Amino acid sequence: MELQAFRAALGEKRILSAYLFTGDQDLLKAQAVEALRRAVAGERGSVRSFVGGGVDEILEAQRNLSLLDPVAVIVVRQAGKLAKSEAEMLANGLPTVRKGPPIVFWDEQVDRRWALFAQIARAGGEVEFLAPKRGDLAAWIREEAQRLGHRISPDAVAQLSELVGGDLLRLRSTLEKLSVALGLGSAIDAQAIAEHVTSTREHAVWELQDAMSAKQALAAVRVFRQLVDEGGEPPALLGAVVAYVRRLLIAREAKGSPSPALLGMPPFRVDKLVAAARKFTPAGLRVAIDELADIDVATKTGRGDAVAALEEWLIGFCVPERRVAGEHAGRG
Question: What global pTM score does this model have?
Answer without folding.
Answer: 0.59
